[in-house]
Amino acid sequence: MVEPERIRDPELLRAYDALLTEDERKKRDRFRFEKDQHSCLVTRALVRTVLSRYEDVDPKDWRFVMNDYGRPEIAEPQSAHTLKFNLSHTNGLIACIVAREREIGVDVEDRERSGKLLDVADRFFSPTEVAALRKLPEKEQLDRFFLYWTLKESYIKARGMGLAIPLSQFSFAIASDISIAFDAKLDDDPDSWQFTAMSFGRRHALAASIRRVAADYVRLELHETVPLARSSMTYARQSRS
Prior knowledge:
Layout: H1 10-19, H2 22-29, H3 34-51, E1 63-66, E2 72-76, E3 83-90, E4 93-100, E5 104-110, H4 117-124, H5 127-135, H6 138-158, E6 170-174, E7 178-182, E8 193-200, E9 204-211, E10 223-224, E11 233-234, E12 239-240
Antiparallel strand pairs: 1-2, 3-4, 5-9, 6-7, 8-9, 8-12, 10-11
């Protein structure tokens, strides 16, 4: 993970720009505001440098393609196709998750964003999630909303289909662990998934969905980094899974 607002070193930013393809530069430059251009640049640097920790590939040599639903995937090098990754960004935070030969998804959200969040829940959450949310004391509803939202987003991103999967067709239950249940319309196995949710500071909520292979358990390590910096920071953080 990276906090883009903290990266302002001109030398680092020039190094990030050198990693981009012309198409990526054009995409960055289409953003109207400098803040969004900066976030796009740091995101591209993050994914390239993180993937190069897992394969002997220069960060500038990665090439990507979008699947039919708009999720970026590795196009080149062919030798790295066992790597899967997913990205998420919000105000103040960018996350990249990587694994081998399994579906994965990540979502980060800014808890400080405004809006009628319970109305959003009524529109997009399952009836059981809405009922559980509204039973909570008002002071706990905000955290539970973002817990549900990040989990649901991370799941549809792991499936690689985005909102082609209606958010109301699956439900999360929050107890000592996190479990999922599917509507009959959605063909998936609840036991094949592992979920993790945590906070990054007070401001940000994060969740990850990971497809299990042969009922294994995957250890999720959280690293805070600055791409191409000489040193990076690693933190052990409380997670809910």
